[in-house]
Amino acid sequence: MSPAPAPDFASEVKICGLNACLAIFARRREDIVRAYVTRPRMPQAAELMSWCADARRAYHIVTDEDLEKLTQSSHHEGICLLVRRPEMPKLSFFADRESRSKGPSCLLLLENVGNPHNLGAIVRVAAHFGVSGILAAGDTASLSAAVHRTAEGGLEHVPVIRIGDPVAAVALFRESGYTSVATSSHTGETLGQSPLPGKTLFLLGSENEGLTPRLLAAAAQCVRIPGTGAVESLNVATATAVLLAEFRRVYPCA
């Protein structure tokens, strides 16, 4: 059955990638509108397709060429879902919830992280290390199909909340008990020299420019990831993994 072009409503998004699609099926299958699967991918998607039939959700058996046209990507991994976008919590509600949370907790604030593959990799890392949420400021990439695919299902576990003024967000989460920790390639205490705060808000900036001076000045602490100095800095997703691994070394996941 050849696919009809899927409607591209603002409230819906096309998600491709096996792990991303199976995570949506596992956690919020009622949001699935339509499924597209290639024949080689059918064994892994059998339960999903059976549910679509029972729930009267359309599904289509397609070719790789069909999916490439539909997703505008060659990295579709043989599956695509048209899915309703989840409703993200409002910043004030999320901050209030975090103020009442007990025990160690970690958040990320991303400023101008515009590369969708970097953002997806950060979300994947955040889900692995149990980050409570990600605040997206400035020109940080939108939650596109590429972000979902690269996140490998991580977006079903970590909310990404779009914010306005990142400095105001730092102040808001300070009231919720979080200490803001910036990263720098050139200054600050070496990571691991002192324990990170039990409630840490890591501030991470773009690959080329780093944090804006205004946000860097708002940070309560600054840490530096030690290295040889042979390269200028780490990729932002790699740096995030190092920071979160250190946080979980001090405060293991429950």
Report on the structure:
The chain is of the alpha/beta class and 254 residues long. It has two domains: 12-84, 60s Ribosomal Protein L30, Chain: A; 91-250, Alpha/beta knot (3-Layer(aba) Sandwich). Helix content is 35%, strand content 22%. The chain is built from nine helices and eleven strands. The strands form two sheets. A seven-stranded parallel β-sheet has the order 7-6-5-10-8-11-9. A four-stranded mixed β-sheet has the order 1-4-2-3. Helix 5 links the parallel strand 5 and strand 6. Helix 1 packs across helix 6, helix 5 (116-128) runs parallel beside helix 6 and helix 5 (116-128) runs parallel beside helix 9 (236-250). The protein is elongated and about 55 Å long.
Which descriptors apply to this entry?
254 residues, 4-stranded mixed beta sheet, Alpha/beta knot, disordered N terminus, 2 domains, 60s Ribosomal Protein L30, Chain: A, elongated
